[in-house]
Design brief:
Length: 90
């Protein structure tokens, strides 16, 4: 079966109607220029916010220096307590 070529406009229209990105499908299904422009602005605004938040998150991650403090304290434990604990819990 030979592949039937479709014009680019028809491919893009099919993609826009079937995509799960809601803004793109709203743009494709809008009947008036007003609503189409509205959905273009909403979609671009949402995409811009995603990019903006991603850049903020990345910059915050990169600006934090890695710092580790480890405090080790030793205390003497009587061997009698350890033996009694072992007998009681074993």
């Amino acid at each position: 079966m030979k592949y039937k070529e479709r014009p680019l406009r028809a491919l893009l229209q099919g993609f826009a109607e079937e995509t799960t990105a809601h803004g793109i499908s709203q743009i494709a299904s809008s009947k008036s220029v007003f609503w189409r422009l509205f959905w273009v602005l909403v979609t671009l605004g949402g995409g811009g916010m995603v990019i903006y938040q991603g850049i903020l998150l990345f910059n915050t991650y990169m600006s934090k220096p890695i710092k580790s403090d480890i405090d080790i304290t030793y205390r003497r434990v009587s061997s009698v307590v350890v033996i009694i604990e072992c007998i009681v819990h074993c």
